[in-house]
Design brief:
Elements: E1 2-5, H1 14-27, E2 33-36, H2 42-51, E3 61-64, H3 70-78, E4 84-87, H4 97-102, E5 106-111, H5 115-130, E6 136-141, H6 150-160, E7 165-166, H7 186-204
Parallel strand pairs: 1-4, 1-5, 2-3, 2-4, 5-6, 6-7
Length: 206
């Protein structure tokens, strides 16, 4: 199964959620492998630094990938029994990105309850529909502040539910900052537990 972490807008916690979801799946002995297609390579760099500090082999592997090599990589992912997590670039400019998106069984799209983030997320969802991407999409309200008004949440949810499901929100907490591989606190795990259980139950247990 191919699961992509996507959004055009940076700063929404895409890479952080990819790390935490990989850890969540590994704790359930589902043995995910992560592919970092993002130009910034943050997922791979965090993993590389973390693995340099441990002596034993890591439980989770991250592979740095280029969109220009996507055809071969997608073929290998298609023939794999593993859960494959893709950290995908925000830009849709590369002509190979559509081929990658078409191979996703599920897209996890974090967003913030902020105008720019919401508009960017909505545009992304509309583009996916326009280019006929068949993947399931679940939107994750991330880094949610306590002062966000209910009516704003409700209006955003109604708009995004036209394109996919809305996962339980993740609060804006200090323990969610500077998440790293193999250095994930119990508080961080509990913060995302309901969100990831929703995704697992709705999409992975079918």
């Amino acid at each position: 199964m191919n699961i992509g972490f996507v959004n055009q807008k940076g700063g929404v916690g895409k890479t952080t959620l990819a790390i935490l979801f990989a850890d969540y799946l590994q704790n359930r002995e589902l043995n995910p492998v992560c592919l970092d297609f993002d130009v910034q390579g943050s997922l791979y760099e965090k993993w590389k630094v973390a693995t340099s500090l441990i002596e034993e082999d890591p439980d989770i592997y991250v592979i740095k990938c280029e969109l220009n090599d996507s055809k071969q990589i997608l073929e290998e992912a298609r023939n794999s029994d593993q859960l494959v997590l893709f950290d995908l670039p925000g830009s849709l400019d590369n002509p190979n990105i559509q081929e990658v998106l078409e191979e996703m069984d599920l897209m996890i799209c974090p967003f913030l309850y902020e105008p720019i983030s919401f508009q960017s997320t909505l545009i992304f969802a509309e583009i996916m529909k326009e280019i006929d991407i068949k993947s399931n999409i679940t939107f994750v309200p991330n880094m949610v502040k306590t002062n966000v008004r209910y009516d704003i949440k409700d209006n955003v949810r109604k708009e995004l539910e036209r394109f996919g499901s809305i996962a339980p929100e993740i609060k804006d907490l200090v323990n969610m900052q500077r998440i790293d591989f193999f250095n994930i606190t119990e508080n961080s795990t509990s913060t995302v537990e309901n969100t990831f259980f929703f995704i697992e139950d709705k999409y992975l247990n079918t």
